[in-house]
């Protein structure tokens, strides 16, 4: 115990010796002393790990991007050189459910040789749940953190604090500051729990927080968090992780041997496409678990000795598919372009449709679009209108035809700056009546001057195009740096075209001019008008020539 804690405990012991054992205060004081004696004061693990061992363990236990592992190794190196104390900002893992945040935290604890604790702070709305209750209150006890340290018996474990996004939904600043006092290295060296009333050193505890999205982090925490984004997994990564981690674990859990159940890579890909739509592996793991349970039932009944799950018999295990995956268009069409979107489930194709019709030049948008996307459509329309001459569009068409832009899957809200170039291409296509190539997918945002801006989620978007059988992708020039994160197989088979202006996209994707009924009708009407204008001129000429002949006769 630290000297000040020992002095306080001594006072309480002297006080207890003078109290009658039947009094209520005797029980309260004795409980307090029991807590003081049970806490792991200074009980820490030596920081004797080797960085090479840390790297090996994390790589074995966690399958994820290399840059994340490098960032963790840097933090661990600082901690080792500082003697087990890291005064930097608190590490916060940001990622969708099932992306491996808890697995990564557990791998860190295993690599450091520390105890690992998971604490959920979801639903907490009172300071006392974090910092405890004063011991004068009935049923008083310390807060969650102190209770966890007592249970684990160590003063330097790795603690994963989960569900920050569900923490303190009423957004009381006092509750946020109470948790910040726990995890912030500026304060936690002398953390005072309201029940204990004496400081406890939390500086050697490695706190890791987790949250689903950056927007859901309370504002008080953002300056003191080092955000580490855990990206969603693409199909190939999901298959590798499932074969390496999930299937062996589930087989052991269900009393099955590896030789008894075989699932091919194509079957796993079919499960991902038809039964899950997520960035992580939570739902995918649940589908594999359903298969294991059905196999376990048949094994217990003695029906078979081995099972092979294929694309043909998958429905007998999981039922009909829940989702219909998007597929590339079979042939070029006017007003249909293949965009790429990042969703909560990772990457996906986004077919943007356009149509022009007689009207007054208005733009109609449908598909549960947010304000950012609606503004992007307006900017795209204005740019195409400014380029009417280059595209061979009659400028009057913009005031004579309405344009309807539709994003399918209208039940799913959509927003974000990533569909600008695709909308530009759709508007240019319907107004110039030129088909769009169906073998190219694209992403990028456009400015009012036609510049193409970079976007995020390139890995997921390109993987979605590859999965749908599109092997030519158009990206903003500034996103060239993101290709290094793609699997080698996708890089080898996919052709990338980088553009800095929308005009380059028009040249690449718009096909030959194809007149529609509107265009033909307009061409016929123009020819009729020209013919009408020419006829009166001919009559006048004949009259004049007739008058001249009559005059010449009179003269004769």
State the helical fraction. Answer: 40-55%
User: What is the number of helices?
Assistant: 20
CATH topology of the largest domain: Rossmann fold
End-to-end CA span: 141 Å
Would you give an account of this structure?
There is one protein chain. This protein has 556 residues and is α/β, with parallel strands linked by helices. The chain folds into 5 domains: 3-38, no CATH class; 51-229, Rossmann fold, CATH 3.40.50.300; 235-318, Helicase, Ruva Protein, domain 3, CATH 1.10.8; 336-509, 2-Layer Sandwich (Ribosomal Protein S5, domain 2), CATH 3.30.230.10; 524-556. Helix content is 44%, strand content 15%. A 7-stranded mixed beta sheet has the order 12-13-11-10-14-17-18. A 5-stranded parallel beta sheet has the order 2-3-6-1-7, sandwiched between helices. α9 (235-253) packs parallel to α11 (282-300) and α16 packs across α19. The termini are far apart. Residues 537-545 have low confidence and may be disordered.
Give a brief outline of the structure.
The protein contains 20 helices and 18 strands. Helices cover 44% and strands 15% of the residues. The chain has 556 residues and is of the alpha/beta class.
Explain the layout of strands and helices.
Blueprint: H1 3-17, H2 24-38, H3 51-61, H4 66-81, E1 90-94, H5 101-112, E2 116-120, H6 128-131, H7 144-152, E3 158-162, H8 173-183, E4 191-192, E5 199-200, E6 206-211, E7 225-229, H9 235-253, E8 261-263, H10 265-275, H11 282-300, E9 307-309, H12 314-318, E10 336-343, E11 346-358, E12 363-366, H13 371-386, H14 388-391, H15 397-400, E13 401-406, H16 420-432, E14 441-442, E15 445-446, E16 452-453, H17 458-467, E17 472-476, H18 488-493, E18 495-499, H19 502-509, H20 517-555
Parallel strand pairs: 1-6, 1-7, 2-3, 3-6, 8-9, 10-14, 12-13, 14-17, 17-18
Antiparallel strand pairs: 4-5, 10-11, 11-13, 15-16
């Amino acid at each position: 115990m630290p000297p000040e804690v020992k002095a306080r405990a001594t006072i309480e012991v002297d006080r207890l010796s003078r109290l009658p054992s039947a009094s209520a205060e005797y029980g309260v004081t004795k409980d307090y002393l029991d807590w003081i004696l049970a806490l792991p004061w200074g009980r820490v693990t030596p920081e004797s790990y080797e960085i090479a061992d840390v790297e090996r363990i994390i790589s074995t236990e966690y399958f994820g991007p290399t840059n994340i592992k490098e960032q963790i190794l840097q933090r661990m190196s600082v901690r080792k050189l500082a003697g087990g104390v890291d005064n930097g900002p608190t590490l916060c893992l940001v990622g969708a459910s099932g992306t491996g945040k808890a697995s990564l935290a557990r791998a860190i604890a295993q690599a450091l040789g520390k105890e690992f604790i998971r604490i959920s702070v979801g639903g907490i709305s009172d300071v006392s749940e974090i910092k405890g209750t004063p011991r004068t209150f009935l049923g008083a006890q310390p807060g969650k953190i102190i209770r966890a340290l007592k249970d684990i018996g160590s003063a330097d474990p790795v603690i994963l604090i989960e569900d920050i996004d569900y923490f303190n939904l009423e957004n009381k600043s006092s509750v946020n500051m109470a948790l910040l006092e726990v995890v912030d290295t500026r304060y936690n060296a002398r953390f005072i729990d309201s029940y204990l009333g004496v400081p406890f050193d939390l500086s050697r505890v490695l706190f890791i927080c987790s949250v689903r999205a950056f927007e859901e982090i309370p504002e008080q925490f953002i300056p003191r968090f080092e955000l580490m984004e855990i990206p969603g997994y693409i199909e190939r990564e999901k298959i590798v992780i499932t074969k390496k981690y999930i299937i062996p674990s589930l087989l052991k859990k269900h009393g099955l041997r590896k030789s008894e159940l075989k699932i091919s890579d194509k079957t796993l890909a079919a499960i991902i496409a038809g039964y899950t739509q997520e960035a992580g592996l939570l739902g995918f793991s649940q589908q594999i678990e359903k298969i294991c349970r059905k196999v376990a039932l048949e094994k217990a009944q003695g029906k078979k000795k081995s099972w092979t799950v294929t694309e043909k018999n998958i429905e007998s295990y999981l039922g009909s598919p829940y989702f219909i995956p998007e597929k590339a268009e079979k042939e070029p069409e006017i007003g249909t372009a293949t965009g790429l979107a990042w969703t909560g489930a990772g990457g996906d194709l986004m077919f943007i449709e356009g149509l022009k019709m007689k009207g007054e030049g208005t733009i109609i948008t449908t598909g549960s679009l947010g304000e950012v996307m609606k503004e992007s459509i307006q900017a795209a329309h204005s740019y195409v209108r400014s380029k009417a001459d280059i595209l061979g569009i009659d400028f009057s068409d913009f005031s004579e035809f309405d344009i309807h832009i539709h994003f399918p899957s209208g039940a799913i809200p959509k927003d974000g700056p990533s569909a600008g170039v695709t909308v530009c291409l759709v508007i240019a296509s319907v107004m110039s009546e030129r088909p769009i190539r169906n073998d190219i997918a694209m992403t990028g945002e456009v400015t009012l001057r036609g510049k193409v801006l970079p976007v995020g989620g390139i890995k997921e978007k390109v993987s979605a195009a590859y999965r749908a059988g599109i092997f030519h992708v158009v990206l903003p020039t500034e996103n060239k740096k993101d290709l290094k994160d793609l699997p080698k197989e996708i890089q080898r088979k996919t052709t990338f075209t980088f553009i800095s202006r929308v005009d380059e996209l028009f040249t690449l994707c718009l096909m030959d001019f194809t007149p529609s009924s509107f265009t033909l009708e307009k061409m016929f009407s123009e020819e009729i008008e020209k013919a009408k204008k020419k006829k009166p001129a001919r009559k006048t000429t004949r009259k004049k020539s007739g008058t001249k002949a009559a005059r010449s006769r009179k003269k004769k």
